[in-house]
Write a structure and sequence with these properties.
Chain A is 0% helix and 52% strand. By secondary structure, chain A is mostly beta strands. At the A-B interface, strand 1, strand 4, strand 6, strand 7 and strand 9 of A face strand 1, strand 4, strand 6, strand 7 and strand 9 of B. Strand 1 of chain A pairs antiparallel with strand 7 of chain B.
Chain lengths: 104, 104
């Protein structure tokens, strides 16, 4: 019988870098949990599509031409392959837990 | 620029049946949102693997030999293909929102 784990568990007290873990993988996708706490990222220019949702915390994505999207828990969006973007802000006071599904 | 939707939004007041919606699809997977409110299901005996998480509410899965797994928000598990299971209970007082990723 499969035993459950929890998406909000197993988060270290200190997070010098974003935490990134593979949750499931198929032939044409990878599902990851990402945990941020005040982190932001460089620009991504991915060859894969990314379906992403923020499950806790608060975050902001930046797209080209200084376009910003604020994310609250439950918000999800599809970032098509080659759509340049970055995480411009995550709440420094709490964990932002993301689920990201990468696929071609 | 992609615009976000919310996993906890767009839930009808009345849910005579579980609500099931396709969120993303690739060549070898389907990602669905399922919303239950007091529903249970018949037995599933799937040809696909299912990675599933409960995002809100409360639910119970039943596996063979009367084995039960209680799920709280954030709990996730992988149900391998052909692992017989059913949703034996969901909280009738609130929405149980699931994310389910089916893949081969």
């Amino acid at each position: 019988m499969p035993a459950p784990s929890n998406l909000f568990g197993g988060i270290p007290t200190q997070l010098p870098d974003e935490l990134e873990e593979l949750l499931a993988q198929g032939r044409r996708f990878r599902l990851k949990r990402i945990v941020s706490r005040g982190h932001n990222t460089d620009w991504y220019h991915q060859d894969e599509n990314e379906w992403v949702t923020l499950l806790s915390g608060a975050a902001q994505l930046e797209f080209e031409q200084q376009t910003f999207v604020d994310l609250a828990p439950g918000d999800f969006l599809l970032i098509p392959a080659h759509c340049k973007h970055r995480v411009s802000w995550t709440d420094p006071r709490t964990e932002s837990v993301w689920l990201a599904l990468y696929f071609d």
